[in-house]
Design a protein that fits this description.
The protein has 8 helices and 13 strands. Helix 5 runs antiparallel to helix 6. It is globular and about 60 Å long. It binds 2-oxoglutaric acid. The site of 2-oxoglutaric acid has 11 residues, from strand 8, strand 12 and strand 13.
């Protein structure tokens, strides 16, 4: 088979450059916590006649799941077609043809080597640079099972130095996440000077910052865009699960899985179908990029004080969210 020829450089994704609010919306578009209220119970027939769903809906769904399973088994025949690869200095064309277009995750090493942040971003450096500027973060997460679903309830503000002290203490209670990016643009602007940009894969749009302590945890979910994670400080454990496994993941509420944490035996006891599914684990360390394609489930746990950016402004269209059936 002929290898695809080189791809001419494409312009930045129209409309998204620099607009953090838009980027945040694109990640989990259509998010509306009201949609997560318990579903209405079936009403007695006399309440109101509702049209019945077509009789073959569940069979159509089973056939689609059969197809996803069969295709996944077929991909597993070849290490070229499946698995989580690590690549060094991947070119634009390789990234497009082998990962972005097929929707396959990859860890990329070496692309952040010239970022000053890699050597600078310790908790002390960050606290001294940003000082007492007020920042927004997610707080009060301990003891709240739905902190990602009910993001707005957990918005908190504090001087940055105080937030860094919380993060340094560790735990999952306080986490500055991508969701806080728009609010923090001005306060955290001085950090931009320490960042490079992986132009081979991304248009020039700002990333969304995550800062948290050891134990910060983002539960199992997928995003409605392709995402590039750029790890700057510390290490994160990430579990990735292909979209073909969705039916094992109690996917009922928006982009979240009721399993919440696939490594928690108590949750697995509640959702045994999630026990033996196909999954990949990766440990991100400073300087690693991780490409997570749209629809791939992931959960993330910080092993230590950690800083990371996520980018959605790729050189190619990234608009799956526009047709997501909510
Ligand atoms: O780093 C994290 O805690 C979560 C990152 C994530 O899930 C995402 O960017 O979609």
């Amino acid at each position: 088979m002929k290898k695809p020829g080189p791809t001419p450089p494409l312009p930045a994704l129209p409309g998204t450059g620099g607009d953090l609010r838009l980027q945040m919306a694109l990640r989990q578009i259509g998010f509306d916590p009201r949609q997560t209220e318990p579903r209405a119970q079936p009403q007695p027939r006399q309440a109101k006649a509702q049209p019945l769903p077509p009789a073959d809906d569940s069979r159509a769904l089973k056939r689609r799941e059969w197809l996803l399973d069969t295709m996944e088994r077929q991909r597993a025949l070849s290490p070229y077609a499946s698995g989580l690869l690590t690549a060094e200095n991947l070119s634009t064309d390789q990234f497009l043809h082998e990962f972005y277009a097929p929707g396959r995750p990859v860890v990329i090493k070496g692309a952040m080597a010239d970022w000053p942040a890699l050597a600078r971003w310790t908790p002390d450096y960050l606290a001294d640079l940003i000082g007492e500027a007020l920042v927004e973060f997610q707080g009060g997460r301990d003891g709240a099972g739905d902190y990602e679903l009910m993001k707005d309830r957990h918005r908190r503000r504090a001087p940055f130095r105080q937030f860094i002290a919380l993060a340094r203490d560790g735990g999952n209670d306080a986490y500055l996440t991508a969701y806080n990016s728009a609010a923090n643009g001005a306060a955290l602007a001085p950090l931009q000077a320490d960042l490079g940009h992986p132009d081979a894969y991304l248009a020039r749009a700002p990333g969304m910052l995550w800062i948290g302590g050891a134990g910060a945890f983002t539960p199992l979910h997928f995003d409605l865009t392709n995402n590039m994670l750029a790890q700057v400080t510390g290490a994160k454990q990430i579990i990735l699960i292909p979209p073909s496994q969705t039916r094992h993941l109690a996917h009922d509420r928006h982009v979240f899985s009721d399993v919440h944490d696939i490594t928690d035996p108590e949750r697995i006891a509640l959702y045994p179908a999630a026990r033996d599914l196909l999954r990949y684990e990766v440990r991100l360390t400073p300087g690693d990029l991780l490409f997570i394609p749209i629809g791939w489930w992931h959960q993330v746990r910080s092993e230590s004080f950690s800083t990371m950016l996520t980018y959605t402004g790729f050189r190619w269209p990234n608009a799956g969210h526009e047709t997501y059936p909510g």
